[in-house]
Fold:
Amino acid sequence: MEAVAVVIPAHDESETIVACLRSVRASLRHCGVPPWHRRVVVVADDCTDATATLARAEGAHVVEVAYRNVGAVRRTGVELALELAHHRSEKDLWLSFTDADSVVPEHWIAAQLALARTADAVAGTVEVTDWSGRPAELAEHFARTYPVVRGDEHLHVHGANLGVRASAYLACGGFEALRLSEDQALVAELVRRGHCVSRPCDLPVVTSARSSPRAAGGFGDCLNRLTQPVMRQEHTLRRPSRRWGNPGWWGY
Structure:
């Protein structure tokens, strides 16, 4: 890959955007792509706080919109990334995606680019390291039901840990303007069109378990549903339903 762009949607993320961007910048520094071919795009969606200001201070390209639609937000971020890399071939541009409440490992982009030698997209996992404010049984339940694997690969899709070759992204029509599961829709279309999607089990991104999530119906909301008293009954946690054990339950 000759160029890489990281696209991050954000809605009122002033408390987390700086940590996210600093982790992304550290990962970019270790990816082997020259600085002049690396870009970070933050799409500040209907923000009422200092998210956009903080992102600009961290060196990100920022576009402000008012969609309240994560699919449209990610799509807008890609459009800007493509404009910024207009002199590069689409097959040589790698698009990485994470969320503003997440922190990526230092080797994250380098690992995606290594997998891109044989794959058109990379779908990674997420992990939570801070369960503050959440019941202990929720962390235990997550540990039991999340790691659904098939051979050396997992079955999850997360917008917080995703990468795709720009040419493959465009061939599939890009992100749809969906309020939920836009990441899963993109990966499903990539697979349907015969593109190779790598799903490594050893490339997690640390994400938030906060109880006030930004995307309705996403990862945070699913955690909220699991903390409801009826779902925290001991007999339920000891015998999780098929739905809870399904990779689609955690794959946002």
The chain has eleven helices and eleven strands. The chain has a mean pLDDT of 87. Residues 70-84 form the longest helix (15 residues). Residues 137 and 232 are 7 Å apart (CA to CA).
